[in-house]
Design brief:
The complex is a heterodimer of chains A (about 375) and B (about 375).
Chain A: H1 3-32, H2 40-58, H3 61-85, H4 90-113, H5 140-145, H6 148-157, H7 162-180, H8 182-192, H9 194-199, H10 204-230, H11 242-252, H12 257-276, E1 281-283, H13 284-303, H14 307-335, H15 339-342, E2 346-348, H16 351-367
Antiparallel strand pairs in A: 1-2
Helix pairs in contact in A: 1-6, 1-7, 1-10, 1-11, 1-12, 2-3, 2-4, 2-10, 2-11, 3-4, 3-10, 7-8, 7-12, 8-10, 11-12, 11-16, 12-16, 13-14
Chain B: H1 6-31, H2 36-48, H3 51-76, H4 84-101, H5 107-136, H6 140-160, H7 185-191, H8 205-222, H9 224-234, H10 236-241, H11 246-270, H12 285-295, H13 300-323, H14 330-344, H15 346-367
Helix pairs in contact in B: 1-14, 1-15, 2-3, 2-13, 3-8, 3-11, 3-12, 3-13, 4-5, 4-6, 4-11, 4-12, 5-6, 5-11, 8-9, 8-11, 8-13, 9-11, 12-13, 12-14, 14-15
Classes of the chains: A mainly alpha (about 375), B mainly alpha (about 375).
């Protein structure tokens, strides 16, 4: 792998990470204030649709962005009404918003443009185009032959849409708001101990609503980025689970802005690897070592604990071991060689596995074996004023 | 102060929620330039207009009964199993593996073996999230969402690799052996010389679904385990104080839930007209289960009614989209509204009704 490939991979990671990052920060504000939001996906999707539709109709991408933010905020407020005003179940409300957006975007897109649930392709002036920094090379051939520093500058630093830079700026800004302002302190407090905030004479309801609105704004930008910068128009379900991966990144980041940047870049890298190297090969012995190692570690962990740990983790280890040996024997029989020779064969890692890595990662993190993630204490619970 | 009567709680509140959801859906229809009344008539005809359509409605209802029960059992323990979709896919994988690789001479054996395998696979798929919830406190909602994505990865891998028959372009298993085909209700009707349900795939597994309803009813309200599940759902600390193991009951409730969701696969793999496992086998049924359980108030009778309603909606919506330019996703919108109003905004609907009852009750008491 040469230097330019690494730069390109980094470039792609950033591009993939930005929508995750914006959605992740959106979730961060909401959850830090004690409102769980699994409706990030739906809000992004609604914003992606409306910003593309309005950009196309009005011809101005900035108007489109505003429209996207608008619809996302509206959905956020609905979530707020359900979970703050009427003290409903926040998870159920989030689920409902996801379905609402998934269905309605297609229905309205069909009614509006009659192109099978898509918006028409956006012309160049109705999109967020890549900004070329002064002196940056734009032609691929020039970049390949340039010096490493120039490659880095032209490919990695320059050549993104303005939303990418805004998204990256959102990280220090979020940190500053949350940790350096009075509003941020109160917002974090309302997610940990709303009764204390209430006792101090500050409105829990108003704070939580402002958090939810900030969440809506960020989700709106994330959605608009997808349909007006990454792609030229809206297609059905174009968010492709990014809202859920953002939630996962949020947990991985332990609800902190800078960690969120790291987590999203990592998940972005997973995507970039998946796109760039569709064919990842691995020697069978490494697969065996990895799977059997996990199985052994889990078994050792389980034996010193209770019966239920032994049953579940032991069973799971057995399944891992079975998968490992199946891979081995399948390779051996497919190539018609002995089992020992098969150990050194290289096989293709299923692309589904690479795509599942972010999800797998989250489960491992949630399991708390690798650094425990502790959510805001009052998260998910409606605040009932004492009388 | 009287509370409102029980019938209002179990029937009036869901019906009012449903009416609100329907009114908002009507606005959506108007917004896309469709007369809502005409759309409703088309949907009703598409759902029950002919005996074929009715069969499809019942077929979908069978799916939703399974997933609705799955969500409801977990709800009774205050757990939100949002992973029905993945459990259905894995259930399908279990059923497909058994039916394809074990020679089963008769459909009754295939039904028993397939249903068992589907339930076991579904339960195994929720076992890790359940364990993590019970022992490590990892939130079941997030882990089951992640497991949904992984399930579709596993399924697509299996269907495009190990289980793919040679020379087949479709991402699907081979068609199941003839002997394992479940009889459709039409096959049974034809024994009596009628052609009820026509070409629709509604099949014998609807009886399994109804049996599952009875079993869940008995389990939740008439067994010690059911009592423990409900006790845990009401108050974890009280349940612990009463000597109930929260870890074990959480695990068991979720395993039952996953098993029920997995069993749905019998209907939509072995029961369809060309029995095979396809890549989008669940078709959103796992999620519709949430709406069904919420609307059915987590009771098997309510779930049957709600499942029939959603079956009709699903089938009617498909016919509507075939007849007009409205895409089939309108069903998802209505489903979302039902989840919103019967689930998250329940209090908004309930409080005014409760107030009305209290005022009405008082004035009557004063008049007497």
């Amino acid at each position: 792998m040469d230097f330019f490939t690494i730069v390109q991979l980094g470039d792609a990671s950033v591009r993939m990470a930005i929508p995750l990052l914006l959605a992740c920060l959106a979730g961060l504000f909401s959850e830090r204030a004690g409102i769980f939001d699994i409706g990030l996906e739906g809000k992004m999707l609604a914003a992606a649709f409306l910003s593309a539709a309005v950009s196309y109709t009005s011809g101005s991408v900035w108007v489109g962005l505003l429209a996207g933010i608008g619809i996302s905020v509206v959905l956020s407020i609905i979530h707020g009404i359900a979970s703050i005003t009427f003290k409903g179940n926040q998870l159920i409300s989030g689920v409902a918003i996801n379905f609402f957006a998934a269905g309605l975007t297609v229905v309205i897109a069909q009614g509006w443009f009659a192109q099978g649930g898509r918006t028409p392709s956006l012309p160049k002036e109705a999109r967020f185009n890549d900004l070329d920094f002064p002196g940056a090379l734009s032609r691929m051939r020039d970049k390949m032959q340039a010096s490493p520093g120039m490659q880095f500058y032209s490919e990695f630093v320059s050549g993104h849409s303005i939303l990418v830079y805004l998204g990256l700026l959102a990280v220090p800004l979020s940190w500053w708001i949350l940790y350096q302002t009075r509003f941020g302190l109160r917002l974090r407090a309302v997610g940990e101990a709303p009764e204390a905030v209430d006792t101090a004479g500050i409105s829990v309801v108003r704070l939580r609503f402002s958090a939810v609105v900030i969440c809506g704004i960020l989700c709106g930008i994330a959605g608009a980025y997808l349909s007006t910068a990454v792609q030229a128009g809206f297609t059905k379900d174009m968010t492709a689970n990014r809202g859920f991966i953002a939630l996962a990144a949020l947990i991985f980041a332990k609800w902190r802005p800078w960690y969120a940047l790291g987590a999203c870049l990592l998940f972005g890298l997973f995507f970039a690897i998946d796109i760039r190297f569709s064919n990842i090969q691995l020697q069978v012995i490494w697969i065996m070592v990895l799977l059997l190692g996990c199985a052994a570690a889990l078994t050792i962990y389980a034996v010193r604990r209770e019966k239920i740990d032994v049953i579940v983790l032991g069973g799971f280890s057995a399944i891992l071991a079975a998968v490992a040996f199946t891979a081995l024997f399948a390779t051996a029989s497919a190539d018609g060689i002995s089992v020992f020779a098969a150990l050194w064969e290289t096989v293709k890692v299923p692309s589904q596995l690479i795509q599942s890595l972010p999800y797998l990662f989250v489960v491992v993190v949630l399991a708390g074996f690798v650094g425990k993630a502790v959510p805001p204490r009052a998260g998910g619970q409606p605040y009932v004023k004492e009388r | 102060m009287d509370k409102m009567p029980k019938w209002a709680d179990v029937a009036l509140v869901p019906v009012v929620s449903l009416i609100i959801a329907a009114l908002i859906s009507a606005i959506v229809f108007v917004a896309v330039g469709q007369n809502p009344w005409e759309a409703l008539k088309l949907m009703a005809y598409g759902a029950v207009g002919t005996s074929d359509f009715l069969g499809y409605t019942l077929f979908y209802a069978t799916n939703f009964i399974f997933t609705g029960l799955a969500v409801a059992v977990a709800f009774h323990a205050s757990l939100f199993n949002i992973g029905g979709e993945g459990q259905v896919l894995l259930g399908g994988l279990g059923a497909a593996i058994v039916v394809l690789f074990v020679p089963l001479p008769h459909w009754t054996l295939a039904l028993i073996a397939g249903a068992t395998a589907a339930a076991v696979f579904g339960a195994l798929w929720v076992a890790i999230p359940a364990y993590l919830q019970a022992r490590r406190g990892s939130h079941i909602v997030i882990t089951t969402i992640m497991f949904n994505f992984m399930a579709s990865g596993v399924l697509i891998y299996m269907l495009s690799g190990p289980l793919k028959p040679d020379g087949n372009m479709q991402i699907a298993t081979a068609i199941f052996p003839e002997a394992s085909h479940l009889p459709s209700l039409n096959d049974i009707a034809r024994l009596f010389g009628s052609d009820l349900f026509g070409r629709s795939p509604v099949n014998i597994s609807i009886l399994i679904a109804l049996l599952a309803c009875v079993a869940v009813w008995a389990l939740i309200w008439h067994t010690r385990l059911g009592y423990q599940i409900r006790a845990l759902g009401r108050s974890e600390s009280a349940a612990k104080y009463a000597g109930i193991s929260a870890v074990n009951i959480t695990m068991i409730a979720l395993l039952i839930s996953g098993g029920l969701a997995g069993m749905m696969a019998v209907n939509n793999t072995m029961g369809i007209n060309t029995p095979q496992l396809v890549d989008n086998a669940a078709g959103g049924a796992g999620f519709i289960g949430i709406a069904v359980a919420l609307m059915g108030r987590n009771h098997p009778v309510g779930i049957i009614i709600a499942a029939l309603l959603f079956g009709a909606l699903y089938q009617g919506g498909a016919e509507l989209s075939a007849a007009t330019s409205i895409p089939v996703q309108i069903v998802v919108v209505i489903q979302a509204l039902v989840i919103m109003f019967t689930g998250a905004l329940d209090e908004m609907v309930r409080a005014p009704i409760e107030k009305l009852f209290i005022r009405f009750g008082r004035s009557r008491a004063a008049g007497e």
